[in-house]
Design a protein that fits this description.
The protein is α+β, with helices and mostly antiparallel strands. About 20% of the residues lie in helices and about 55% in strands. The chain has a domain of about 80 residues. It contains three helices and seven strands. The longest helix has 10 residues.
């Protein structure tokens, strides 16, 4: 069972117990964070907006860290043009703790609309 979640404009494939590095989140270490699911795969595939409302993906913030130093060097030959820049990304490590809702969402999708008392009454009148 896995899910594809979105955070920071990027998508990640996660399972329960997965550790992933994402762009810095405004949460303290140890806080629980809810991630937005894009796709859920259990017994059945859930990808629609209605089915994904029932899917819940939670993670805890393990730590905040900085990525490796990136060096950017721009150069144009024979023109004397040289520019040097760089940066380090601010990152957050998340540990996925819970991944649930697939079975209930899949059942609701298969069962379809439920019968009401009004439907039963109409069926009796017809016969």
């Amino acid at each position: 069972m896995y899910a594809v979640v979105e955070t920071g404009g990027k998508q990640y494939r996660v399972e329960e117990g997965t550790s992933l590095l994402v762009d810095r989140l405004d949460a303290k270490e140890g806080d629980k964070v809810t991630l937005r699911p894009v796709l859920f795969r259990g017994d059945d595939v859930v990808a629609g907006a209605k089915g994904l409302e029932k899917v819940k993906v939670e993670a805890t913030v393990a730590e905040h860290l900085r990525g490796p130093k990136i060096k950017v060097f721009k150069y144009k030959a024979k023109k004397g043009y040289r520019r040097r820049a760089g940066h380090r990304s601010e990152l957050t490590r998340l540990e996925v703790t819970t991944l649930k809702g697939g079975k209930a969402a899949a059942k609701a999708k298969k069962d379809g609309p439920k019968k009401t008392a009004k439907d039963d009454k109409a069926a009796k009148e017809e016969s």
